[in-house]
Amino acid sequence: MIFKSPYHDVTIPDLSLTEFLFQNAAEYLDKPALIDGPTGRPLTYGQLVGAIRKVAAGLAQLGFKKGDVFAICSPNIPEYALAFHAIASCGGVITTINPLYTADEMANQLNDCKARFLVTIPPFVAKAQDAKSKSSLEQIFVFGEAEGATPFMSLLQNDAPPPNVTVRSDDLLVLPYSSGTTGLPKGVMLTHRNVVANIVQSLVNVDMAHDDVMIGILPFYHIYGMVVVMSLVLKVGGTVVTMPQFDLENFLKILQNYKVTRACLVPPIILALAKHPMVDQYDLSNLKQIFSGAAPLSADLQAAAAARLNCNVVQGYGLTETSPVTHATPNDPARVKPGSVGPAIPNTETQIVDVETGKALSAGQEGEIWLRGPQVMKGYLNNPTATSNMLDSVGWLHTGDIGYIDSEGYLYVVDRVKELIKYKGMQVAPAELEGVLLRHDSIADAAVIGISDPEAGELPKAFVVLKPGREMSEEDVMTFVASQVAPHKKVRRVAFVSQIPKSSSGKILRRILVQQERDAQKS
Length: 523
Prior knowledge:
Radius of gyration: 23 Å
Number of strands: 27
Helix content: 25-40%
CATH architecture of the domain at 17-27 and 44-167: 3-Layer(aba) Sandwich
Number of helices: 15
CATH topology of the domain at 17-27 and 44-167: Rossmann fold
Shape: globular
């Protein structure tokens, strides 16, 4: 059966994202849109809107045109939003890159999406130059100043009119990268309409308002931070206080000093808020809601955090491929169901499907979660096979997650059939790590799975077959992988085995390794 949202459908404006977000900005031009948390440096709505127009004009003068791709590789700072919307205003496409990526990881993404330009911060310019030498990149910009890069703010120094370009709602807006249900990271094609729709849908039961102050710790390169924090808050005229990296003490200071009212977080941070003794040293009384996403939050941890902080703790669900939100718990303590990610947001349909038979299931039955709605991606860039594997001919997105829906329409996510590992809410593709492991001269074969961890959610564990006569320690394997990947992708556990279980076609049977791990934990 098809489960409908309990909410009435909403009308989706036929606007570009930038037009949509700043429709009412004239009402609060002097109010901070974003504040740099560590320094207190504000960027008002008036400054932001004016700078977006100027930078868009500067980009057009450089020959940046509609459909061109511009990469942003930066931690969270106010200028991130400026760059994002200036590019979008030109009809450009933004691809967001984790700033902790290695040069090779960066180059792979730049080449896949054929990015022309990139903006980063001074400490990462050398890495960006290395990536440029291996990619299609034409020019590097920098927030601030650094040798070998053009100051991004120099784009403000022009008197040209905004570019004469029509940005339609069905134009491509952003290319975040996701592994989907399997394989290597792929560019997720999200249009202006996808993201605008998701904001309109989410605002029905995510009751954000102009007097809200949101902590901007979720990385803006990740779809959760990009849409739910950087975009949704600006739509209602609220303020985002940015943090470039997580540090518990500084995080607590910012929550206290800026009187933060809303916090979109991931379970590892919520765990610290629920358990760490340092929390008691700070006044967090202005915090009225914590919204958890990107990874499952246990009912016990949800209740513990709510009790300690005396605020509402709720969960939501979604994917990069759904812009991201599909389900969200209302900000009403009476409507919170611990362990549930809530009902579907407006204009969103859900099916629970038997993994073996493909049969649609009823309430209370567990199966794969399928989703359909205007927030669902256009597809994967340059990858029709992966697109057709995840998105069927009638618009259902096959998530690879296992869950059930109760009699009141609340979704519970309980497991996963897809191979993706979630380390502190960040995606780790097993196939990518296996490729890295097989580069080592001493490794004959390898497989990677996620294993349960109370703090991180899941840890990447490698099963390694050594070549005859070769020796490696667990530490050797972990050090080798760590030297070639971003920190969140590090292998954290290693087991040496005689062979990797595979199908007759040679496909790694990770489910066998997963089951072996679960059996071992029970014994």
